[in-house]
């Protein structure tokens, strides 16, 4: 019944840029290079001194482990010192991983300086005189290799940009507006099976996490991402199929909100803030950490957009630290803090872990502001949108239009292996309600170069983390299939979405237990993505951010309660006067049984008809409520209308 209107969303071209990096990134890279060259020069000066310990320490400043080259004084010592160099390089790589994974900027510094100090302690009385020349040769080789690599990358990406822009320009002549979001639609059997999986985990007592898996606190396998993933997909299901249902669907979302307050979801921040920002403040909302504040803010915003329930905007939530400290923030407070952090960042986008900016996390924070603007009349997203757009395109998109997953605010470095078809498609999906033209560009680039449809199959050109279940770190294509397919559905490419659903059916072992569908060896987080794959419709994520539930739906009749898991609500929509429902038995034992439904927001005392219920006529009570009896043999369609 609900028919959202179409809205303009042109297709953006890849902007011209003379260099691989945007101006802010280029300045940071130059600063980092100058800083390193000064450090290396200081090391070489020390290496030319007459004191063996200082010579070795200086060489250790030039390169991690370089100080051990001073001990190359005999064949046996060469083997021993080479082993120490390899050990140092291994430890340095692990330290870099810790820096990337948790913002621990101290780890690489400690390993680098510690190895230099160790080399000084082990320095022979007569250091090898050729060590400085060896390190200079290594530096020269690295410098030449890096310069040639960047030249080749510049040429390749420039050619890619021209080729892609030619095709994008041709597409743009045919894409003047995005089609209206798909109308509210009934959930199919596959979607209902995955919905049961998500609801079972979300509806358990808040203090319990049965069946919700997580690996660590810091990266993709953290508990907060499983919870937010379930929250987002339940919000999407409500918006796309069940806007006139509350009951267990909204209770499940409120449970997830409460779980996000559990310290197990944010205690990592006291560590990350300490070793990344050198701050002992454990408050998870105030600074950086958009991987928590932005994700949680978007969860709350989607709930408000779907239900019109403003309690989260008025009543602060409580974060409780074991030492007695407390922080209280409402949805409005979280949005205000996000706005402040966006405004204070040179990149507009701001960090997750200290120093590391992830565009995907920032998109959730931006969605929080966009929903806040629409609900509360602020202009926070409208204010930062031009700078967000400019910096997103110049600092977080490659010269040929691919989305970078990460950027260091202190060095300008990125990790190219994280640029992948999954990252492109996640950006297209969750940026669609914010910068629809850039979202469309990301999707079309992925579609033309990395998603190949041949006959009745689809192949993805993958790399890096594409082959990983992000909720468990196990080798699997499940997250990529789900995310790319959900993005395809959001962007209106039902062909790709359906082909990826079929790949999931073929390649993974499905288990169906009393109405619940699960895949063996697949994480909770990935199951939430699978629900999105089967439930997502064209433009719905965009509509949820830009429009929310229609006023008529928010003000019209609602299904307030239905017993779970006996009754699965597959469709619930209202035009403000009539209420249409589709129900299915949620488990085998419920088939043929009589169930009680509670309706609300009816006209107090008014008479109604209900096609499909055991009582075809009823009256609302003085509070606009009524109960109905239904018998579920299979799919049951109900239509509630006021009597003339």
Quote the distance from N terminus to C terminus: 20 Å
The number of helices is: 21
Give the low-pLDDT segments: 2-9
Q: What fraction, in percent, of the residue positions are helical? A: 40-55%
Major sheet: 5 strands, antiparallel
How much of the sequence is in beta strands? Answer: 5-15%
Give me the CATH fold name of the largest domain: Glycosyltransferase
- Tertiary shape: elongated
The order of strands across the largest sheet is 14-15-20-17-18
Mean pLDDT: 95
Count every beta strand, where a strand is a DSSP E run of 2 or more residues.
Answer: 20
Task: Describe the protein's architecture and organization.
The chain is an alpha+beta fold. The chain has three domains: 23-152, no CATH class; 181-546, Glycosyltransferase (Alpha/alpha barrel), CATH 1.50.10; 556-642, Golgi alpha-mannosidase II (Immunoglobulin-like), CATH 2.60.40. 50% of the residues lie in helices and 13% in strands. The protein is built from 21 helices and 20 strands. The strands form eight sheets. Strands 14-15-20-17-18 form a five-stranded antiparallel β-sheet. It has a three-stranded antiparallel β-sheet with strand order 13-16-19, with no helix packed on it. The chain has a two-stranded antiparallel ribbon with strand order 1-2. The longest helix is centred in the first third of the chain and has 42 residues, at 131-172. It is elongated and about 100 Å long. The two termini are 20 Å apart. Residues 2-9 have low confidence and may be disordered.
């Amino acid at each position: 019944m609900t028919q959202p209107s179409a809205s303009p969303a042109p297709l953006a071209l890849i902007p011209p840029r003379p260099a691989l990096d945007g101006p802010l990134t280029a300045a940071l890279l130059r600063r980092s290079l100058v800083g390193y060259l000064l450090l290396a020069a200081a090391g070489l000066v020390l290496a030319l001194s007459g004191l063996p310990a200082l010579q070795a320490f200086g060489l250790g400043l030039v390169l991690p482990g370089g100080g051990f080259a001073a001990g190359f004084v005999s064949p046996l010592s060469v083997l021993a010192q080479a082993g120490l160099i390899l050990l140092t390089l291994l430890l340095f790589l692990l330290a870099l991983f810790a820096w990337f994974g948790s913002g621990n900027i101290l780890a690489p510094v400690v390993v680098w300086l510690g190895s230099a100090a160790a080399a000084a302690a082990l320095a022979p009385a007569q250091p090898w005189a050729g060590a400085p020349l060896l390190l200079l040769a290594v530096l020269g080789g690295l410098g030449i290799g890096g310069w040639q690599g960047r030249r080749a990358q510049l040429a390749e990406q420039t050619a890619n940009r021209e080729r892609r822009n030619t095709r994008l320009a041709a597409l743009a002549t045919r894409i003047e507006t995005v089609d209206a979001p798909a109308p509210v639609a009934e959930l199919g059997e596959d979607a209902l099976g995955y919905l049961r999986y998500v609801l079972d985990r979300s509806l358990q007592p808040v203090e319990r996490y049965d069946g919700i898996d997580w690996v660590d606190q810091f990266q993709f396998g953290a508990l907060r991402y499983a919870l937010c993933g379930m929250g987002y997909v339940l919000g999407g299901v409500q918006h796309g199929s069940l806007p006139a249902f509350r009951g267990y669907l909204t209770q499940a979302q409120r449970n997830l909100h409460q779980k996000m307050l559990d310290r197990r979801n944010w205690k990592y921040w006291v560590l990350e803030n300490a070793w990344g920002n050198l701050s002992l403040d454990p408050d998870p909302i105030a600074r950086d950490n958009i991987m928590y504040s932005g994700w949680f803010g978007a969860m709350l915003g989607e709930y408000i957009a779907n239900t019109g329930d403003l309690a989260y905007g008025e009543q602060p939530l409580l974060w409780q630290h074991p030492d007695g400290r407390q922080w209280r923030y409402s949805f409005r407070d979280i949005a205000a803090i996000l706005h402040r952090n966006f405004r204070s960042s040179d990149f507009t986008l701001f960090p997750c872990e200290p120093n590391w900016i992830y565009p995907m996390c920032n998109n959730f924070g931006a969605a929080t502001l966009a929903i806040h603007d629409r609900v509360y009349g602020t202009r926070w997203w409208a204010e930062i949108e031009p700078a967000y757009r400019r910096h997103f395109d110049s600092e977080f998109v490659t010269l040929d239009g691919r989305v970078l997953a990460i950027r260091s605010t202190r060095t300008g470095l990125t990790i190219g292996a994280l640029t992948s078809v999954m990252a492109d498609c996640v950006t297209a999906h969750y940026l669609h309600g914010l910068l629809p033209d850039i979202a469309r560009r990301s999707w079309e680039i992925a579609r033309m170069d990395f998603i190949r449809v041949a006959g009745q199959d689809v192949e993805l050109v993958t790399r890096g983390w594409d082959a990983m279940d992000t909720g468990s770190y196990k080798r699997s294509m499940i997250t990529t299939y789900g995310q790319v397919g959900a993005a395809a559905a959001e962007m209106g490419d039902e062909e790709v979405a359906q082909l990826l659903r079929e790949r999931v059916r073929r390649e993974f072992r499905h288990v169906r237990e009393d109405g619940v569908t699960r895949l063996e060896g697949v994480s909770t987080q990935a199951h939430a993505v699978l629900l999105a794959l089967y439930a997502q419709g064209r433009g719905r994520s965009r509509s949820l951010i830009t429009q929310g539930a229609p006023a008529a739906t928010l003000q019209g009749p609602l299904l307030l309660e239905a017993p779970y898991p006996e009754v699965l609500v597959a469709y619930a929509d209202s035009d403000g006067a009539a209420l249409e429902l589709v129900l299915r038995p949620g488990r085998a034992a419920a088939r043929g049984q009589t169930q009680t439904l509670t309706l609300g927001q009816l006209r107090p005392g008014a008479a109604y008809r209900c096609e499909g219920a055991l009582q075809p006529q009823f009256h609302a009570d003085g509070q606009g409520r009524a109960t109905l009896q239904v018998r579920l043999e299979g799919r049951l369609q109900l239509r509630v209308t006021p009597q003339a």
